[in-house]
Design goal:
This protein is an alpha/beta fold. It is built from five helices and eleven strands. The protein has a single domain, classed as Rossmann fold, CATH 3.40.50. The structure holds glutamine. The site of glutamine has 12 residues, from strand 7. It catalyses: L-glutamine + H2O = L-glutamate + NH4(+); N(2)-formyl-N(1)-(5-phospho-beta-D-ribosyl)glycinamide + L-glutamine + ATP + H2O = 2-formamido-N(1)-(5-O-phospho-beta-D-ribosyl)acetamidine + L-glutamate + ADP + phosphate + H(+).
Length: 231
């Protein structure tokens, strides 16, 4: 399975993401620069965290206009797996691959600490190795992680089971609507989340609870791939 880690000017979690793929599932992974418009050889595209284009205008607002994001839109339409972490989540909402927007944290402060997440939907390619309702410890590091959408969109997210992760009840670090920490698109092949699983892949990092996101993607892809080979 081939992984791409996108790199924008200002990305700063690209190396962690690359290492997380190497360390957890050992699959081929490349850095892909923002000017590159061809993602055809990749099965999964990872949009990492950071401060793309210095967070000018809004976090993720400029990155959406790059060549590589046009290729990401195409890859999403083709059903490839797309995972946006933190700034990557912000970029995916700006590119309209995911609904809603990320606003400034309610306390107007950059928050950087461990959080407890609840796996709300383990029926996705990104979460199938977790148990439903499993509590996992994953760090956050963001200034604009306050997820917001209108009422109709929230209803749709809830009804279609598109809320993949919530912050533990009573411990919402940024004021996000309905305690949302991560969502998927309707088709389920695009997921965005504010917490950083790529920083939680070894006990020595404080938690290894992020690992199963990467093992899930590989097992989902293998299942699809093997089924296609048999047909
Ligand atoms: N770690 C990140 O990706 C940070 C995202 C963005 N720059 C913010 O502060 O919200």
């Amino acid at each position: 399975m081939n992984f791409a880690v996108l790199v924008f000017p200002g990305s700063n979690c690209d190396i962690d993401m690359y290492k997380a793929i190497e360390d957890t599932i050992g699959q081929p992974v490349d850095y892909v620069w923002h000017t590159d418009g061809d993602l055809s050889k990749y099965d999964c595209i990872l949009v990492p965290g950071g401060f793309s284009y210095g967070d000018y205008l809004r976090c993720g607002a400029i990155a959406q206009f790059t060549n590589v994001m046009k290729a990401v839109v195409k890859a999403a339409e083709e059903g490839k797996y797309i995972l946006g972490i933190c700034n990557g989540f912000q970029v995916l909402t700006e590119a309209r691959l995911l609904p809603g927007a990320l606003l400034r944290n309610n306390g107007m402060k950059f928050r950087c600490h461990q959080t407890i997440l609840k796996v709300e939907n383990n029926n996705t390619a990104f979460t199938r190795d977790y148990a439903e309702g499993e509590l996992i410890e994953i760090p956050i590091a963001h200034g604009e992680g306050n997820y917001y959408c209108d009422e109709a969109t929230l209803k749709e997210l809830q009804e279609n089971n598109q809320i993949v992760f919530r912050y533990e009840a009573g411990n919402n670090p940024n004021g996000s609507l309905d305690d949302i920490a991560g969502i998927s698109n309707k088709a389920g092949n695009v997921v965005g989340m504010m917490p950083h699983p790529e920083r939680a892949v070894h006990e020595i990092l404080g938690s290894a609870d992020g690992k199963k996101i990467f093992t899930s993607i590989l097992s989902a892809w293998r299942e699809k791939h093997d089924a296609a080979a048999i047909r």
